[in-house]
Amino acid sequence: MKQLLAIAIMCLFSSSFVQAQSKQQTAVANAVEKLRQAMVDADQATLESSVADKLSYGHSGGHIDDKKEFVDKIASGKSDFVTIDLTEQTISISGKTAIVRHILTAKTNDGGKPGEVHLRVILVWQKKAGKWLLLARQAVKIT
To answer: How many domains does the chain fold into?
Structure first.
């Protein structure tokens, strides 16, 4: 009987953990989607509120943007995303840190010049005051 009770308690705690993990993963996925949409819409206010003040945004070509440069490039249209599609996304959470990996496929129109990008991306999100903020991003070209 004690063994049965112990198993029941373990099942209860493990299902609560999985459910809590799923809620956190959903919250991170929602933050990723909000950022994706803000990038397509060039929505300056949403971009600013979605990223951490200490943002490190690494491009596949090697350039690193801080928060101001990242927001300014997109809001001004210098970096213009017509579409962004994210596939093969995984989310791993450890405490107040989330690591998101996905493949980003986008159509761009930088400086009036149409283009396409195909990247593998890793995002690091930090939970601050109950909100997930993008802290770091690094992209590499898919060859």
So the answer is: 1
Instruction: Give which of 22, 20, 18, 31 is closest to 124, Cα–Cα.
Output: 31
List of residues 6+ apart from 12 with CB closer than 8 A: none
Domain ranges, residue 12? 2-141
Burial status of residue 89 (CB atoms within 10 A of its CB: 0-12, 13-18, 19 or more)? middle
Is 70 exceeded by the pLDDT of residue 9?
no
Q: What is the CATH number of the domain that holds 114?
A: 3.10.450.50
What pLDDT digit, counting tens, does each position of 15-43 carry?
444 445 689 999 999 999 999 999 999 99
